[in-house]
Amino acid sequence: MTVFPVSKIVRSPGSGLLSFTTGSGKAKRFLGEWFDGSAMKDWQTQLPDRIKAQQGPFSIIGFPSDCGGGICRGTAHGPLHLRKKLYEDHPEWVTRDLGDIPCIPHLLHDVMLSDRQRELSGKALWNDSFEAGSPVSPLNLLEEFLVELYRTISDFRPLVLGGDHSTAGAIFEALHREGRLKNCAVLQFDAHTDLLESRFGVENCFATWTANAIKRMPDPKRFVQIGIRASGFPKQHWESKFGLRQHWAEDLLSLDPAKYAAELVADLKARGCDCLYISNDIDGTDKQYAPSTGTPEGGGMTPDWVAKVIEVCTSELKLIGADMVEVAPVIGSPADGELTVATATRILEAHQWH
Ligand SMILES: [Mn+2]
What we know:
The protein contains 13 helices and eight strands. By secondary structure, the protein is of the alpha/beta class.
């Protein structure tokens, strides 16, 4: 029997990173201006009202997990740093924030856990309300929380702040379970294909999530990867193996982004799409603008190029959800971190929610 709702254990913004402390001290320093002491302390009590108050166009969820990465860790700090900048620039977004998924940093997915570990971590998270079968790992908690919100908020549209790119795998499972992928196109901005079927035997991580997500698409050609440039195999290999489409950075850099996006939208509409999900891996953008990430790559697009494509596509197709992942503000210098967060913010501001 599974214990729900997950909203019972969701933490205040910035407090979901269960590291050497609860993380709440740093959260207070960063976000105290927007969330007062009572909001931080009584988040779980206040959350049902916050959920009830959500009325389009989107809701923010923090997912401070980097256990699904594998190169340099640090994306667990992404949501807190992203929120600080987003709320400075857009204080009206604060009421959209539904808090953080509590992330035990050693856990990733429940399929990896013994019954004993699941019970021990389950009791730590759920206290007395733990029952066998309750989700305990970050990816499972995110998936179940999203499903809960789909069933509570009409026209629920998540903006999930990750986290490494395994984040998107959990979102896709929720989209699939709720039947949201039927007429949906997907854009993935990324330097990498994320198309391994497993990595060292791990089937749910930053490198495998797209291979899993593609299986959920009614037509894989509605899934378009944009900005690929670091791959052990050529484009033809991936396109013929998985049926998705890839637009590599080397072919995009000389294109006008508005014209490229207009053609992309026309193509997706011709394939029956009327809505869109966008997965934003910050390493899709050139490393000059996004140095604080696990695998920065040169030869990528500028933030303005990416933002223009997103602006045009989301003006034409209804945006049903988005994520911003792989932002690791603790990698590199503080200036690198700030630059990367500013780039992510620029890209998120381009999303049109209508
Ligand atoms: Mn990725």
